[in-house]
Amino acid sequence: ALLFYPSYSSFILKKSLSKKLYSSVDFGRKWQLIHEHVTPNRFYCWKQNNFEHRNIRILLYIEYSDGNVQYVTCRAQMCTEANRNYPFPGYIEISSLVIQDDYIFIQVPMSGRATYYVSYKRETFTQTKLPKYSLPKDLHIVSTNEKQVFAAVQEWNQNDTYNLYLSDTRGIYFTLAMENVKTTRGIGGNQMLDLYEVAGIKGMLIANKRHDNQVKTYITYNKGRDWRLLQAPERDLDGNDIHCMLPFCSLHLQLQMSENPYLSGSISTKSSAPGIIVATGNIGAELSYNNVGMFISSDAGNSWRKIFEEEHNVWFLDKGGALVAVKQPSVPTRHLWISFDEGREWTQYSFSPVPLFVDGVLVEAGTENQIMTFFGHFSHRSEWQLIKIDYKSIYSRKCAEEDYQTWHLHNQQQGEPCVMGQKQIFMKRRPGNYCMLGRDYSRILSAESCICRAHDFECDYGYERTGDGTCRPAFWFNRSMISRGCSQGQNYFNSTGYRKVVLNNCTKGVKEMFTAVKQQCPIRPPKGLLLSTKDGKLTANLGSNVTFLVHLDEGDSMRTNIQLDFGDGTAVSYSNLSWTEEGIKHAYKAAGIVRVTALAENMLGHDAATLYLHVTCPVEQVQLLAPFVVIRNKEVNVTAVVLPSHPRTVTYFWWLGNNTEVSLKCSDLLQQISCCKAVTLFSLSKRACGQICQSFPSLSLTEFFKSLLLSFSPNLDEFNPDIPEWRQDVGRVIKKALLQVSDFPDEQLLVAMFPGVPTAAELFLLPHKNQSGSKKKSEAELEQVTLTILNALNQNLVEFELKPGVRVIVYNTQLTLDETAPLVDSNPRHSSSAMLMLLSVVFLGLAVFLIYKFKRKIPWINIYTDGSQEKEQEMIGSVGQGDRTSKITLSEFSSSKELMEKELESRAKRGVGNSCESTREIPNCTSV
């Protein structure tokens, strides 16, 4: 395989059948070995700075014997091991490399998820940022030809649709342009997206979207910021009125590109004929593949006309000055149709004496060579036939100035002649003029910038468009992230929630209001310190260098001192976080488990981070299942779940603070400590290799608590990807909604989200850490807050907005008792609350059995929950009338023990229904 450099003809890359890659700078006279294990069809080259061969860089995939692949770059003539660059220290997906225009894309597997990286203009790779919970199963690069990236993403909850995302200029931050774009399976089995970029007009796209089991066609003039349905033609081919009213009825188009490059496909446009769109489609409530026809638009999709009742292939002649149509190749034909007035009238010509199955048409470009070549066959057994058509004789002359007219590009929905921030005027040949467009024909007559309006701006990354058109932060978006890495004395751009549509040319207007504001970096103490290894692993070979990465979310990084303790008696210190950007390397001389600690400190505060490193063959995943809230001075069960669950030798290491313990007892902690953390490491036999795993569950320590089981409206389940990050973010939003209906302090509420579907959670109400009053008083206060929140839940007052138009209501499922073992974030079905429920049912059954057995000896007490005054007096008045049934309200039952004792004493004296031998035993009876 040979690869020539486009602008430096003497440079050649050659790969042999044995996977060896060579380079030559003298057109093959001498060859230099680059690498011996290069993946077929996975090597590229590009220039850097200028065209000299010494500045040509090579990008290649190196394949190892175990099938893993690494990504490598180097200079063409200096590709020795010492001069090679490995942008990704781990392995990459072999088929994920995409190189288009200024962008290079790569997929790297990390923690079981696909992670995508992009390089803009061959610069350093950066991880792409999709919305936090898009979680793509599949991602395709649609196009990169308009200074940004169009990506089709199949989300975790999609099967036959994709979401369309648009990036910023660098291809890093992606925002949603359209949901649920339909896909069509091609002849070769490939999934093709029903999305079409209209040629000749930037920012204009047509897409088929699935909504409520219907597929409809939408069009946009500003790169997906706004979409609208297509207006159906007013009349049919016979001139009869078509009654089709938006939004119940519209025009729908088939957007499949032809897999045969010599056929036009179901939709066709040409950059030399801006505004003209020819497509197959139908009129109705949704897209259909029955009763279809051919439609054309001469004004960029604002209005449409029907031109044929049957499907045709349509080609553009003479820069769009003429249109040629031929029936689909499944039907033999000897006629073609030509239109010189943009499809209003068609003239039929015969091009073959015998009907021909047309397999394709070659249209030769240029003004001096007006030739079309048809190729096809007369029957399925005949040989191919070639028919050449010279249509130059159709034109009598070249077009003069009076043969042209102007056409203003506009968006009918917005009611103004501004598209992508410009007023554009095009020149067109007047319909019906049989003249040939000249070589110097110019399509655009003028382009003038417009005043910026709201539709010239889309929502920035982390923001979502609401029903009123404004952009608001998504529930998962932390606005403080925008100043990450910002140091005192520097500036950063604080987003307003909007970003200008790429390549939009508008000026002034709302531009200042919507453009990101330049602000000074705030002064903050260190916060969000993260410590990790460069390769993301928690294992290290003895004697080899381990590269540690230190990252700070917030704080003045320029004035923060970083201390790193490697856990083996050595430590380093840096006075500036930027010095650690390339990583801190350290080699261990003794095997075992080490505790690596990072400390960030400045004049305003400090933050710390810890990881545990081990030389071992690890398991794939480990989870610690622990209760969220535990009672002080009571033992706690913590369960370790190891995945995969195949039988093997596993060594467990437990940490409580800095001490190694076999079991965890929160009673060992000091009274001031309100939270303890457990860490688990696993070491396996040499045959089982993988990554070592750690788990850091948090336990809230308290004397007593109250808890409520929460459930949600079913629409939350549709957006539940069942991952810990999502549960944490949603739990935070639920907590915020609960704080709005109660005056309870933030630190005394804990929302624990459970894995799985249906979505469920448990709300814990904790007493204040520094209790000023007695325990009884604190319990009463906790009870009051519980009733307040319970009342709000029962009245559907607790709700939150998951995304624009999706509101979720929080309900109360069951009130659990205080001083019970709370639920565990592993399986909501095996919870202590569920066990209490089961025990309650058992005790209730036992009580019913006892009552049934001794029903002749013990008087019945019917409890009524209706607390109205009239009924209450009536019920109380019925006590002591000598019948076998006493009635009393629930509220009265809790406070009328003396009344019951008197009644039972009275019955004992009369010998009516009293099972006690003496008055002395009456309290025991009442307690039962």
Account of the 3D structure:
- This is Sortilin related VPS10 domain containing receptor 3.
- InterPro entries: Ig-like_fold, PKD_dom, PKD_dom_sf, Sortilin_C, Sortilin_N, VPS10, VPS10-sortilin.
- Its main location: membrane.
- There is one protein chain.
- By secondary structure, this protein is mainly beta.
- Among the domains are: 94 residues; 49 residues, no CATH class; 56 residues, Wheat Germ Agglutinin (Isolectin 2), domain 1 (2-Layer Sandwich), CATH 3.30.60.270; 90 residues, Immunoglobulins (Immunoglobulin-like), CATH 2.60.40.10; 111 residues, 2-Layer Sandwich (Alpha-Beta Plaits), CATH 3.30.70.
- Helices cover 10% and strands 38% of the residues.
- The chain is built from eight helices and 64 strands.
- The strands form 19 sheets. The chain has a five-stranded antiparallel beta sheet, with no helix packed on it. Strands 21, 22, 23, 24 and 25 form a five-stranded antiparallel beta sheet that branches.
- Strand 27 and strand 28 form a beta hairpin.
- The chain starts with a strand and ends with a helix.
Question: TL;DR?
Answer:
The chain has 928 residues and is mainly beta. It is 10% helix and 38% strand.
CATH architecture of the domain at 704-814: 2-Layer Sandwich
Q: Give a short account of the largest sheet.
A: 5 strands, antiparallel
Rg, alpha carbons = 37 Å
How much of the polypeptide forms β-strand, as a percent range? 35-45%
Helix percent band:
10-25%
Count of discrete alpha- or pi-helical segments spanning 4 or more residues: 8
The SS-based structural class is mainly beta
Tell me the strand order in the biggest sheet. Answer: 12-13-14-15-16
Categorize the overall geometry. globular
Q: Average pLDDT, to the nearest integer?
A: 76
Beta strands, count: 64
Ends distance = 91 Å
- Classified by CATH, the class of the domain at 704-814 is Alpha Beta
Runs with pLDDT <50, length 5+?
660-691, 815-836, 854-897, 910-928
Membrane topology: Single-pass type I membrane protein
Protein name: Sortilin related VPS10 domain containing receptor 3
Domain PKD: 555-622
Subcellular location: Membrane
